[in-house]
Amino acid sequence: VAKIATACNMGKSDAEKTFDKIQDIILDSLKNDETVKIAGFGTYKVAKRKARTGRNPRTGESIQIAASQKVKFLPAKALKEMFNK
């Protein structure tokens, strides 16, 4: 937040409010099953996993794993290239 405030020439409290609002918008979009694309940075999306059968690693017993959702982040090409030079 301090770096945002400095870079945007605004007070720290204004930068914090702005960051919090951006975060709220991203979270609300994901809750509504929307994809969030940030140009030059990456894409956030909700991935759904089906229920499946797994194994308890200690006992080897077969267990049922419930369906679930997770947030996936796919970095933009420019971001990937920055770290893979």
Short key terms for the protein model shown above:
Hist_DNA-bd; DNA binding; alpha+beta; 32% strand; 3 helices; two-stranded antiparallel sheet; structural constituent of chromatin; HU Protein, Chain A; 2 domains; 5 strands; 85 residues; DNA condensation; HU family DNA-binding protein
* Percent strand: 25-35%
Overall CATH class of the largest domain = Few Secondary Structures
Class from secondary-structure proportions: alpha+beta
State the helix count.
3
The third-level CATH topology of the largest domain is HU Protein, Chain A
What is the CA–CA distance across the termini?
Answer: 28 Å
Low-pLDDT stretches are none
Tell me the CATH superfamily of the largest domain: IHF-like DNA-binding proteins
**How many structural domains?**
2
Mean pLDDT: 95
Strand order of the largest sheet: 1-2-5
- The CATH architecture of the largest domain can be named as Irregular
Topology, number of strands: 5
Largest sheet: 3 strands, antiparallel
Percent in helix: 25-40%
What is the N-to-C succession of helices and strands?
Answer: HHEEEEEH
Overall 3D shape: elongated
Rg, alpha carbons? 19 Å
Summarize the structure in words.
With 85 residues, the protein is α+β, with helices and mostly antiparallel strands. It has two domains: 1-34; 35-85, HU Protein, Chain A (Irregular), CATH 4.10.520.10. The protein contains three helices and five strands. It has helices at residues 2-7, 12-31, 77-83; strands at 36-38, 42-49, 52-55, 62-65, 68-75. The strands form two sheets. It has a three-stranded antiparallel sheet. It is elongated, with a radius of gyration of 19 Å. It starts with a helix and ends with a helix. 0% of the residues are buried. The model has no long low-confidence stretch (mean pLDDT 95).
